[in-house]
Amino acid sequence: MDIIVQLEDGSITTLEVQKYSYAFPGQRAACYSADMLLRQYKKKWDEASEAKRRMNYREIRSVYTIVLYENSPGIFHQFPDTYIHHFRQTSDTGLEMELLEQLREKDDRLKEKDDRLKEKDDRLKEKDDRLKEKDDRLKKQSLQIEELRHRL
Predict the structure, then answer these.
(1) How far is the C-alpha of 66 from the C-alpha of 15, rounded, in Å?
(2) How many other C-beta atoms are found inside a 10 Å radius of the C-beta of residue 85?
(3) Distances (CA, A) of 151 to 132, 139, 142, 144
């Protein structure tokens, strides 16, 4: 069974559910990812052709392939207590390029967004504390005014 989802940022996730394990699981997962990239490429190419403009490769978004096995292939049995495995392409020289199958960059961006949201949350808490202090002062002043009115 295959489930294909396009995320808010335009990236595509394919969820492959396999009841039985097959030979060559790495090659199969690479083909699933390649299929998603080619689908995007064709769609963006067709859109650009229709609009009479050049296609921009930056329009191609990341793809994520998730494979769930009911009975995993034997190679996975080397890690009997590990159920989630992450794979990504890397360079043997340390050169870094934006590869569309790379998940690490997405995680870094999510962490940056999370940090910014925490900072905003801290600022809002500080404002909330200041408002509570003002509210307490106003309540105190209101009580003082009420006491003065009763004296008169």
Answers:
(1) 5
(2) 11
(3) 29, 19, 14, 11
**What is residue 61's DSSP assignment?**
P
Strand partners, 13: 5, 64
> What is the end-to-end Cα distance of the chain in Å, rounded?
82
Sheet holding 63-69, edge to edge: 2-6, 12-18, 63-69
Tokens of 130: 């200041």
Does residue 117 carry a pLDDT above 50?
yes
Q: How far apart are the C-alpha atoms of 74 and 16, rounded to whole Å?
A: 18
Q: Is the pTM of this model over 0.85?
A: no
Contact by Cβ (8 Å): 67, 33 = no
Q: What are the tens digits of pLDDT across the range 65-90? A: 888 888 888 888 888 888 888 877 77
